[in-house]
Amino acid sequence: MNGIPATAAVPSGAPGADGSLELALALVGTAQDSREEIDAFLKRHHFAPRDEVARARDSQARWTIEPDGRITVTFLADDGTAHIALAPYEGVRRWAALALAHGGTLAVWFLPEMTSFLPEDISRRITPGGGEWWRLSVGYVPA
């Protein structure tokens, strides 16, 4: 990860309010970065708080499948670029294929100040009343 607060990147997803599937990359924030650095990252890349709508057309973030199979998420901003690269493990490839099958847009969830990146802990955080988290909608761009 380059230019992104210290996080664990976890391919994830959750059912949407309309019964659809929202595929997401959960960025589980650790306590290594200051709150000011996290807030600056969230503002710079136009993340929306948990109760607001995040649309791909409003963001400057894109994801792609590289020729070598890695999944990259790139965040563009006036002051530079930040990116995440996920290794092409089988589960990551399936997750990406599922995202493409559901239209190619995925969410990036930023969950600050967590101590665990287990799926059940991520689920608890994103449920109503589960705590702070931020969302960004990211469109697919072919390599």
Account of the 3D structure:
The chain contains three helices and eight strands, in the order ββαββββαβαβ. The model has no long low-confidence stretch (mean pLDDT 88). The protein is 21% helix and 36% strand. Strands 1, 2, 3, 4, 5, 6, 7 and 8 form an eight-stranded mixed β-sheet that branches. The chain has 143 residues and is of the alpha+beta class.
Query: How many helices does DSSP assign?
Result: 3
- The structural class is alpha+beta
Mean pLDDT: 88
The coarse silhouette is: globular
Largest sheet composition: 8 strands, mixed
Tally the beta strands: 8
List the helices and strands and how they pair.
Elements: E1 7-15, E2 21-29, H1 35-44, E3 48-49, E4 61-65, E5 71-77, E6 80-86, H2 90-101, E7 106-111, H3 119-126, E8 134-140
Parallel strand pairs: 2-7, 4-8
Antiparallel strand pairs: 1-2, 3-8, 4-5, 5-6, 7-8
